[in-house]
Amino acid sequence: MAVFARPRQAFVIAGVLGLALSAAACGTGNDKGSSSNADSAECAAYDKYKGHDGKKVSIYSSIRDIEADRLDQSWEQFEECTGIDIDHEGSGEFEAQLPVRVDGGNAPDLAFIPQPGLLKRFADAGKLKPVGADTKAMAEQNYSPDWLKYSTVNGTLYGAPLGSNVKSFVWYSPKMFKEKGWTVPTTWDDLIKLSDTIAASGIKPWCAGIESGDATGWPATDWIEDVLLRTAGPEVYDQWTTHGIPFNDPKVAEALDRAGSILKNEKYVNGGFGGVKSLATTSFQEAGVPITTGKCALHRQASFYANQWPEGTKVGEDGDVFAFYFPAIDPAKGKPVLGGGEFVAAFNDRPEVQAVQTYLASGEYANSRAKIGDWVSANKQLDLANVANPIDKLSVQILQDQSTVFRFDGSDLMPAAVGAGTFWKGMVDWVNGKDTASVLQGIESSWK
User: Fold this and answer.
1) What is the pLDDT at residue 1?
2) Which of 26, 398, 437, 441 is spaced 20 to 30 Å from 255 by Cα?
3) What CATH class does 169-338+410-447 carry?
């Protein structure tokens, strides 16, 4: 699932300054889409993308607020040097509105699609354009086959990855842990013992929220996926996401119930917000904030949650908040990592659209975006030195580690009607009291 960030004034100011500096590097910041300085030394890296001066490329995504500002900043020099005007629109209703636009004949040139299942739907319907030769070569150079398979349909590549995230993290307060004498758990049993210790101290150990507008429910699906990877292993996980086993297989029910031992435990949740049912009305953006006020101690959420903390919150091992790896359950299943990301898919294949799609798959783009901050990518050309945020740095190390057992977000892999439909809704029903068997049976029935 994509990240929706809250605007924070300090970052907006920084982004504006960054835009001005970036524009100055190419000679002008007042004429977006003009390549008047295209022959400057700073523009030499963009020679392969030139020849489209004055053309416009539209992009639609779920990325909003400060993250959208950073996107604009990340390709500012590309625009100045090539003369291509990139018009990005971010929406909180992206998953619902993109099909409406596409089916209505109003598709954007490019879309950053975080659900391979949704991408497949468009590809199967003949709506997407296969990547051009240049984009294909760039994607194969910079991304592993495991990543490219998520945007490959029937042997054809329809998009290169863009941003990525690691979801197998639990956020906490190093200061609180030090004051209380708590230690970071490295096993599931230790995690539960720690939760009991925190609960006994009078603090609700966990805070969580699954409200996310039209996408309400998705944070709970991440819990199930992370737990299933740890209890059943990656092979069973793959069978589940492709419907090789039914959605209500006993192994899935076991994972849901184990997740429920935390999420539906009134002793454990929902610190700072209320009881179990408050999960459904607490926005995922706000869900971890009670850690900063001592009202809860643990919040399972992805690396991108680094962007959600209140202004002035220091992220780091010696900071106000940090995160640890969501512990393994069965050591025999290895150390799996759940993650996600967006794929740059094209609904039009005009030359300027292909140029932008190719650039976004390049190492130059990955490093340009990383330098701005708070961003992760599995791009092999990403220099770790350009990644400042400690959680992002840890995430990139995990993604680039050949030994990592990585699996993509399961709900994003499933057909959109299930993964972004009945699965999300089923998790809301489950949090609100519906039993495991009924919820899983309902989702299984919808797959047909």
Assistant:
1) 52
2) 398
3) alpha beta
Residue linked to tokens 């429920």: 260
Residues of the chain with pLDDT under 50: 2-31, 33-36
Question: What's the farthest any 2 CA atoms get from each other in the chain?
Answer: 67
Q: Are 277 and 432 in contact (CB under 8 A)?
A: yes
Two tokens at 169? Answer: 């993290």
The secondary structure of residue 368, as a DSSP letter, is: H
Are the beta carbons of 374 and 70 closer than 8 angstroms? Answer: yes
Dist CA 419 CA 222 (whole Å): 11
Using alpha carbons, select from 207, 206, 209, 203 the residue that is nearest to residue 294. Answer: 203
Burial of residue 130 (CB within 10 Å: 0-12, 13-18, 19+) is middle
- The whole-angstrom separation of Cα 327 and Cα 334 is 11
Give the type of residue at 194.
L
Helix and strand counts by DSSP (H, E) for the chain? 19, 12
Q: What confidence score (pLDDT) does residue 334 get?
A: 77
Asked, colleague to colleague, whether 9-165+340-406 and 169-338+410-447 share their fold, the answer is yes
Name, in order, each residue with C-beta under 8 angstroms of 129's C-beta and a sequence gap of 6 or more.
158, 346, 347, 348, 349
Fold of 9-165+340-406: D-Maltodextrin-Binding Protein; domain 2 (3.40.190)
DSSP SS3 for 75 = coil
Q: From the centroid of its chain, how far is CA 401?
A: 19
User: For the residues of 139-188, what is the DSSP string, one character each?
Assistant: HHHHS-HHHHGGGEETTEE-EEEEEEEE--EEEE-HHHHHHHT-----BH
Per-residue confidence (pLDDT) for residue 214, from 0 to 100:
86
For the chain, what are the domain ranges? 9-165+340-406, 169-338+410-447
Rg (C-alpha) for the chain, rounded Å, is 22
The CA-atom distances, in angstroms, between 272 and each of 19, 92, 211, 269 are: 38, 25, 15, 9
pLDDT on residue 3:
44
- The backbone torsions φ and ψ at residue 130, rounded to the nearest 5 degrees and listed phi first, read -60, 150
pLDDT at residue 37 in the model: 64
